[in-house]
Amino acid sequence: MYAVIETGGKQYKVSTGDVIWTEKINGEPGTTVKFDKVLLIHDNDGQTIIGKPYIEGASVSADIIKQGKAPKIVVFKYRHKSNYRRKYGHRQPYTSLKIGAISTGTPSASTEAG
Q: How far is residue 11's CA from residue 37's CA, in Å, rounded to a whole number?
């Protein structure tokens, strides 16, 4: 069984037990977060539930493993012949999540064999 969820402006295909990195979500490590923006669920029987745009009542729960920062990227701007140079770095904060249960809820979207 897998689901497609939306968080942080991005979509993730997740299954039970997966570990994913997402945009920073507020919370302490060890706490559980619930994602209600479920776009698609495909179960083990071959049934696919597609949301319009989301599946009503469906949710995915995940445990926060850690809060961290991604590796540093260096941004260097340069204009030749004008003595213009700017150098700065950026570390994007992220949240590492372990996916727990995927619940389908009451499907009000269309069901198709997939």
A: 10
